[in-house]
Structures are given as C-alpha cells and as structure tokens.
Specification:
Layout (H helix, E strand, L loop, with lengths): L1 H45 L1 H4 L2 E5 L2 E5 L3 H6 L11 H32 L2 H15 L3 H22 L9 H25 L3 H9 L4 H30 L2 H6 L18 H7 L7 H35 L1
Antiparallel strand pairs: 1-2
Length: 315
C-alpha cells in the first residue's frame, strides 16, 4: 500500500514537471513568435521601397522612384521624395552616446549614496522616487522638455549670443538623460547591493577608507550589473520616439553637432511620417524602422559580448 502511494506521488510529480515544462515552452514560443512576427512585418514593408517603383508627385510631374540603398544610408539630406538617412543615423548615435556618458556617472554616484551612505529612510525615499520616475510615460518627459528644459536652453544660448527656437540638440540630450537615469540607477543599486559585505569588510580591515572601498572595491565587483543597466538604457534611448519628436526639431540636413541647433533622429523621423496609411512616404518609414532594428541588434550584440568579457575578467 505504501509502495503504491509512493509510486503515485512520483507519477504526479512527473506529470506536474511535464506540464510546467510545456507551459514554459509555450510561453517562450509565444514570445519568440511575436518578435519574429514584428521583424517579418517591418522587413516585408521596409524592403519594398528598395525593390519596387512608386509613383510620386514632384512639382507638376509624376515620377517613378525607388530607394538606392547606399545613397539612402549614407546621404546628408532628408527631403521628399529623395530620402537619405546617413546623417540621421549619425545624429541618433551621437545623441545616445552623449546621453549615456552623462547619465551613467550620475546613476553610479546615486547608487553609491542610496545603498552605502544615505540613512535608511532617505534611501527608501530616493529608491521610490527613482522607481516612480522609471514609470513616467514618454510623452510627459517630452512635454517637460518642450515646456521647461527648452526655455532654459534658450537662456543658455543667449549667453553665447545665440537666438534659437524651442527645439535643439542639447534639449534632446537632456530629455534622454532624464529618461534613462532611472534604468541605469536601479540596475546600479541592485548591483551594488549584491556585493558581498565580506569583501568590503576585508577592504576596511586593511585600513582602506569607506569611500575608497566603495569606489575601488564595491564598484569593481558591481560593474557587470551596472553595465547591464547601461545596455538597457542604450536600447531605450535608441528606441525613444515620442519625447524626442517634441524637442528635436526634425531638421532636414546634417549631421548636426551644434548643441543649440535642431536635430533629427531615426525614431522622430518614423513618427513624423506616419500620417498616411500607404504610399512611398509611408513605406520609407518602415525601411527606417528596419535600419533602427539592425542598429539596436548590432549594438546589443557588441555590448553583450563586452559584458561577457568583463564577467570573465572579474571571475
């Protein structure tokens, strides 16, 4: 009797194990299928302008046109119907690079203060604020940038003898910095908290000051987790459209490295052209989306390889 009960219990555990594995497999397949479906849909529409001729009105004439790939990704002027996005790619990468370079040290210093220095009540309060900031919709950041930050940038420009509009490269960078700060900060806080106390105690026992320990020991052990936060932040910055569209200006020529001049990114270009539902102008936005996906994919591959190498170096 006891033996039969044990066999039944083992069989039930095996059935539960199979059911859980099946559910996990289905969840994985659904997630993968959605990603594949998105890429296939965008690729199907985005590749069309490279191989298919469209009838486009230019002045009083109707001409047939299709995209030349190399001119498209290397050109410096974005005007219908001769679309070129080379300078937009450079603008996008430049903006994201500056935003990450500014946000990362601020986030790391914040994580050290929150985890190691601040009293518990302050630490809890600051963590809650950062979490709330991460949940703020993109449109709110865009409105804040357009209505507040842009005016501060205008005042700064006047100090240099410049009169500018509400849209500028500097405003775009500041908005992106504010948007990615919570991502890097939360990942940094988690990484710093995960460092074993024994490692820090060993450093302090050798006579090293707490601040030296935090910066030379704690951050060294936490850098893999911090880098993971940077990767997530870069992905968000590259893909941000709504907030950037409200403050960038969407200039038609470039690349632009003037902090007080208008700029243009891949995402703002996509968003600004989705007014129609068909035609050459509409399909070109999918081509730009395909380029953006490729940039994000390549960036993630490079950064994740760097992260793995960093992890191996730590071990």
């Amino acid at each position: 009797m006891q033996h039969n009960l044990e066999k039944k219990e083992v069989r039930n555990k095996q059935i539960i194990n199979v059911v859980v594995k099946t559910i996990l497999l289905l969840a994985t397949l659904i997630s993968a299928s959605i990603i594949i479906l998105i890429v296939v849909q965008i690729a199907g529409r985005g590749l069309r302008p490279l191989f298919q001729y469209y009838e486009v009105q230019q002045g009083n004439e109707i001409i047939k046109i299709k995209l030349n790939f190399f001119t498209f990704i290397s050109g410096t002027t974005y005007t219908a119907p001769l679309y070129q996005i080379g300078f937009i790619i450079i603008n996008t990468l430049f903006i994201v690079l500056l935003a990450v370079l500014i946000a990362t040290p601020i986030s790391i210093l914040t994580s050290i203060f929150v985890v190691k220095i601040a009293p518990k009540f302050l630490s809890t309060g600051l963590t809650t604020i950062v979490e709330m900031l991460a949940a703020v919709p993109s449109i709110i950041f865009g409105m804040f940038g357009s209505g507040f930050i842009s005016k501060i940038v205008q005042s700064i420009a006047r100090l240099f003898g410049r009169e500018i509009g509400l849209n500028s490269l500097l405003t775009t960078i500041i908005v992106l910095v504010i948007m990615i700060l919570p991502t890097i900060t939360m990942m940094s806080i988690t990484a710093v908290r995960s460092v074993k106390p024994e490692i820090e105690e060993g450093s302090l026992a050798l006579g090293v000051t707490p601040m030296q320990t935090y910066f030379k020991v704690t951050l060294k052990k936490a850098k893999s987790g911090i880098f993971a936060g940077v990767i997530l932040a870069i992905g968000r910055a590259l893909g941000e459209a709504t907030a950037v569209s409200l403050v960038s200006g969407n200039t038609g020529k470039g690349p632009n490295f003037d902090l007080f001049g208008p700029t243009r990114t891949l995402t703002s270009t996509i968003l600004s052209g989705l007014k129609e539902t068909s035609g050459f102008d509409y399909d070109v936005r999918f081509t730009i989306g395909l380029v953006l996906i490729a940039i994000i994919l390549v960036t993630n591959i490079i950064l994740n390889k760097a992260k793995k190498r960093m992890s191996r170096y730590e071990s």
